[in-house]
């Protein structure tokens, strides 16, 4: 009897699900569900271009809609049955932390916080914590330079601590109300498993190591002394986060009766450890030592691995060297840029049809493909959403050089 898995990707604008045959990876069903809130799923503030949040309710609704669609599609394939789905796996954007209550329920799902932007999920591309990231970098350089060594030498506004500290500064009522903070990559498996206490959430080394300065070399998260130098309330929060983080060689939980009923699956099947989309995507692409995988989406990530038995030199400007973040027994190495798909979408809206339809993307791509490399004479500095690697600076902006009255959209 064949066995199948349900895999679900939580992206920037939508949830995508597939049902795959465990024997050969063949995809039997696909489902896609856009996020309902905000602008294409992103909650914005016209007063602050660096703000980008998401409604946690969209994650659960999107999972159910995309998962059901993928399973329904698989049922059209001969031999498939839902009781042969043996596991559920998820991957998400990151760092996308969200504040949760003592019951693991996101604050934004409770009436008092439903419309409070700081109580939502802080999407990976939220750069409102840029000043905090600079302060974290400066303090670590003075008092704990070892914290910076495996993350390229600078802390980023896209990451866990800078976002939480910024929340503490601008919305202390949200910070105070939160029993804990959870990465989306860890929240989704916990929600599917029916976890009801933050301390019971299985935290992934992928999110912890690359974004929260977690390392066994210094006993886990940054010390209470270090966090207290930033703000004593961050030091107090540390005890309400986690002490352990795990690679992907263990389950995060078992599918709850509630979610099994919603999807028509068997309760108790394993829910895989969560991780970031680029890292699990690299595994799907066949990553191995000596192979670089580029994951291209709203942003882009460059992923490489190296055997953990070998000592690696520090690499300036990367997003981390973390043992087990991509696959057990290997260091995962991440870098990338903060705007790729976002940048193309912006250009299509500006230069083409405001609806930015797939047809318009296809038209501009086809016309651009007819140009020889360099033919347009244009040069682009592609920092429309800041620079991730190697400068790690969210305040940088983009530039186009060489335009004339003869320039066209496809150039």
Could you characterize the architecture of this molecule?
By secondary structure, the chain is of the alpha+beta class. It has two domains: 4-272, ATPase, nucleotide binding domain (Nucleotidyltransferase, domain 5), CATH 3.30.420; 341-401, no CATH class. The protein contains 13 helices and 17 strands. The strands form six sheets. A four-stranded mixed β-sheet has the order 3-2-1-6. Helix 2 packs across helix 4 and helix 8 packs antiparallel against helix 9 (232-238). It is globular. The model has no long low-confidence stretch (mean pLDDT 93).
Features:
four-stranded mixed beta sheet; 411 residues; globular; four-stranded antiparallel beta sheet; 30% helix; 2 domains; 17 strands; Nucleotidyltransferase, domain 5; alpha+beta
Helix content: 25-40%
CATH class of the largest domain: Alpha Beta
Query: Quaternary state, please?
Result: single chain
Summing up helix and strand content along with how strands pair, one would put the structural category as alpha+beta
Shape: globular
Number of strands: 17
Measured between the Cα atoms of the first and last residue, the distance is: 53 Å
Mean pLDDT: 93
Largest sheet: 4 strands, mixed
Gyration radius (Cα, Å) is 21 Å
Helix segment tally? 13
Uncertain stretches: none
